Target: DNA-directed RNA polymerase
Amino acid sequence: MEEPNAEVGIPTVELRGITFDLMTNTEMEKSSSASIVEPSDVTSAKLGLPNGAPQCETCGAQTVRECDGHSGVIKLPATVLNPHLFEEVVQLLNQTCPGCHTPKQNRDSKRSNGATSQATCKYCSKDGTKQYPDVIFKALTSPRITLSKAKVQHDYNFMDKISITAEVAGRVTDKSNNNGSCEVLPLDYWDFVPHHHPPQSNMTKILLSPYQVSTPPGPY
Ligand SMILES: [Zn+2]
Ligand SMILES: [Zn+2]
Model:
């Protein structure tokens, strides 16, 4: 077959597929020309024209025709969960074991094959006593239903009203005492939650901060 560009030596490749992925923080920083930390940074001369400066600080262009603009990366001082992805975050948390981070649906089949990679995971353990019951993550409220556009614009505290909770599943509340306490959980039950210091091990429901939701847990 004829190589169309062989004469001029232009390298050619055959495109077989495209994959889409999320950028990592490092990739975002690599491809950005400026960090947005202060509100005034959004008009930084590094992001392109017009910016009040005579030229673009990244490419040196002096007219908008010569500069398409350059991307920046916004650095928020605290972790914020995107309200539009809130429900997906809850779904993902519920599909993954909090201890060994394997997908829950694969867990049983793997174990039935005799694989023991999760045998040491206390949350996956099926020894009958089930000392470490499953955790169910829940959205306290559904942002898609409650957050109309108008509400987001007029209610600046709306982020306080959406939270993710982690709840112990399948524990029967001891109804003989009316204070709602349950059987005592193992002391390290909530250890999968970063920076959580439970005052007592019989807490069956905790509220997670966005930081706790998004921070990768340490090695187990
Ligand atoms: Zn430019
Ligand atoms: Zn596990």
In short: The first strand starts at residue 34 and ends at 36. DSSP finds seven helices and five strands in the chain. The mean pLDDT is 76.
